[in-house]
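In this supplementary section we document a worked example of the pipeline. Step one takes a protein sequence of length 175 as its only input; no multiple sequence alignment statistics are reported here. Step two produces a three-dimensional model, which step three serialises into structure tokens for compact storage. The input and output of this example are shown verbatim.
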Amino acid sequence: MELTPRTGPDSEGGEASSAAPRKKRRVSFPALALLVAVIAIGGFVMVKALGSATTFYRNADEAVAERNELGVKRFRLQGTVVPGTVEQTGDGVTFEISYNGVPITIHHVGDPPEMFKESEAVLLEGHFDADGTNTYNSDLMIVKHSEVYKEKESERIKQAEVNGQVPVTTMRSGS
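The serialised model returned by step three reads:
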């Protein structure tokens, strides 16, 4: 059984039948508007997600030099805590950092990490204050430390490597 349509002169109609022209299907305006809205919303969400994932990193001297350009945009700031400037506040801590001799006053909201101390490098995330001064408002602080910790705490590190137990060879007998 052959299932192909007959459209030539051998078809039952005798003459070649002309195929009826197809109607062009038009996309309705509401469907097109919905498609454009979905694409626009998807693009907006992607730009916002990528924007927050790429928070820029500046040293204190660079941030001060670019103060007007940065405005109140969120970015990461690096510097060393200036000795004698750390003060506890009701909602966190205020201190100064410096990089290449350029200081910035920091107002950090929240508890600083345990390793936070004077003369240590810190990485902060936040923005400059809107009043135009070089005050930086931070809500995230990461303390950077050197290898000195390993030297000072070598015995604790050895204990941790032995599942937190003091090795038997260093224990004293009670008798």
